[in-house]
Amino acid sequence: MPQQRNQSDAPTVAQAIERAAERFEAAHLSFGHGTDNAVDEAAEIVFFAAGLRHEDAASVYAQALTAQQCERIDALIDRRISERVPAAYLTNRMWFAGHEFFVDERVLVPRSPIAELIEARFEPWIAADAVRRVLDIGTGSGCIAIASALACPGAQVDAVDVSLDALAVTRINIDRHRVADRVRPVQSDVYADLGVRTYDVIVTNPPYVGSEELASLPEEYRREPKLGLYGGEDGLDIVRRILAGAVMHLEPGGILIGEVGNTEEVLQAAFPDVPFVWLEFERGGGGVFVLTRDELERLADGS
Ligand SMILES: C[S@@+](CC[C@H](N)C(=O)[O-])C[C@H]1O[C@@H](n2cnc3c(N)ncnc32)[C@H](O)[C@@H]1O
Fold first, then answer.
1. CA 61, CA 43: separation in Å to the nearest integer?
2. How far is the CA of 205 from the centre of ligand 1 (A)?
3. Radius of gyration of the chain (CA)
4. Cβ < 6 Å from ligand 1: which residues?
5. 180-193 core/surface letters (b: 16 or more CB in 10 A; e: else)
């Protein structure tokens, strides 16, 4: 028989987070979709399910939850554990570069360290006021494209993805952030449908997971679209095409910023003559390089 919850044994927000985190630890969940530990993951689910705002955290931690809030929290915690689904697919939200984005299973959960670079308006790699046209290859939720447009108010951004499903989510976020006049969703296989358009910044978090790494990924990552993760046997199928076409699509003085995560060493070994500059991030993460158009041009010339 279901038990009735008394007002007196109603857990507080802090207790609900603690209990959920204990259950996550016991179930050996994997984290990495916006949080990197059980407590932060539990806090996001509890706050979402209880209809609370993270901004109010300090004042609501000691607040007792209602029976209805507890039911909603338990239902999501149960699903997080039994389905091994990233929390963002349960809450349909994720923050990136300080902005909230709608997400669902059609797109990768935003988590790229490139967010920090966008917050810095791509400086010091290019002068912020020189960023007039940006291309985001593999836009998914549109997080990089839209955050770039919001960071650089003078910029026009092409948000490219080969997946129409992903572009449907990009459009939701373009509308949500009211940037339809400056962010254009484009279906294209890398550069194929862009014609001869050129950009000051090409930024990309493409699929870069190789076969070996893909086979070892925790269940949570298998909930994401394979098209967003898998980059062929060595992970570099799409990256090679991005590198090869970048000169043609960059303005003089333009830059290419690319994320390749754990495939950094494979990329460096495949292109030993390319002077990749690997970036460091205050909030963690790595595997992001910057190349200038001049460097790419010299390589294309063989000089
Ligand atoms: C790693 S996800 C990145 C999504 C988003 N930019 C982010 O950082 O959260 C890679 C994206 O590239 C897209 N993609 C895969 N192959 C592509 C191709 N050939 N041309 C364009 N986009 C592609 C996938 O659909 C996916 O949305």
1. 10
2. 7
3. 21
4. 107-108, 110, 112, 137-141, 143-144, 160-163, 166, 189-190, 205-207, 227-228, 238
5. eebbebbeeebbee
Q: Report the distance separating Cα 281 and Cα 117, nearest Å.
A: 8
**For 7-50, how does the pLDDT look when each residue is reduced to its tens digit (9 = 90+)?**
557 899 999 999 999 999 999 999 999 899 999 999 999 999 99
Encoding tokens for residue 253? 């003085």
- Whole-number pLDDT of residue 25: 96
The answer to whether residues 287 and 210 touch, using CB atoms and an 8 Å cutoff, is no
Please report where in the chains the tokens 């016991």 appear, as a residue: 26
Whole-number Å distance between alpha carbons of 44 and 35: 9
Distance (angstroms) between ligand 1 centre and the Cα of 165 equals: 11
CA of 126 to the centre of ligand 1 (A): 24
Cα(257) to centroid of ligand 1, in Å?
14
Q: Looking at ligand 1, which residue's alpha carbon is closest to its atom 6?
A: 139
Task: Round the average pLDDT of the chain to a whole number and report it.
Answer: 94
pLDDT tens digits along 125-143? 999 999 999 999 999 999 9
* Measured CA angle at 165 (ends 266, 80), to 5 deg: 75
Q: How far is CA 111 from CA 6, 33, 61, in A?
A: 40, 6, 26
